[in-house]
Amino acid sequence: MKFKSIEQLVDASDPSSLPNKELSEFGEETIWSYMNEIRVLRKAGLIIGLPKDQVTPGISEGIPPAIRRHFSFRTEGLEHDLRLSFRSGMASLLVALINAAIAVLAITLSLDEVHAQSLVGILILGTITILNWVTVWDTYEHFIYEYVPLGRKLKFYKKISEMEILVEAY
Predict the structure, then answer these.
(1) Of 5, 15, 88, 161, which residue is least crowded by CB atoms under 10 Å?
(2) Euclidean distance between CA atoms 101 and 78, whole angstroms
(3) Upstream peptide bond of 19 is cis (omega within 30 degrees of 0)
(4) What ranges in the chain are assigned the alpha helix state H?
(5) What is the pLDDT, as a whole number, of residue 115?
(6) CA dihedral defined by 1, 37, 149, 72, rounded to 10 degrees?
(7) pTM given for the model
(8) Quick check: 128 and 7 in contact, CB under 8 A?
(9) Predicted local distance difference test score (pLDDT) of residue 169
């Protein structure tokens, strides 16, 4: 991947020198978005392209460990987020199971046609049905659209922190 300048890749406001300099948000997002296109188990490496006038021996040697260090550091935060997300998903699953049990109980108790056809019975069963749909959907949405992508991002961040990285001039 090519960057127009070193400032696009590393945080210009960070006073540290390479390899202790942090990546910029743009640099992190660019690397992540390119890596997200491949399968996580596929062997990969990074080639970082920078303008010819900005590539010096210090830059070429300092950028790869800076990238690895940055993504390694960020994995700790993602692991924490993944644990919290799992806990939240399990609470959502528990609520969905309790709602399902209430629905089964309500339907069983309302098998008497008089209760099932009364306005109050219809409202209660309709409300329970909607609550079940919402809690099941929320649980499904949480695990499929939040937890799984977060786990994938964590796997890639770990992979980036260990992969071969080269810096080339263009």
Answers:
(1) 15
(2) 34
(3) yes
(4) 6-9, 25-35, 57-109, 113-117, 119-141, 148-160
(5) 60
(6) -40
(7) 0.77
(8) no
(9) 95
**Alpha-carbon gap, residue 8 to 17, rounded angstroms:** 16
**Which residues pair with residue 2 across a beta bridge?**
49
Query: Mean pLDDT, consecutive 10-residue segments, the chain of 170 residues?
Result: 95 92 96 90 92 93 96 96 95 91 80 66 83 90 93 95 95
- At residue 169, φ and ψ (nearest 5 deg) are -90, 145
- Cα dihedral sign, 150-154-156-161: positive
Greatest pairwise CA separation for the chain in angstroms? 85
Question: Is residue 102 within 8 Å of 128, Cβ to Cβ?
Answer: yes
- Among the listed residues 54, 74, 72, 71, the one whose alpha carbon sits nearest the alpha carbon of residue 3: 54
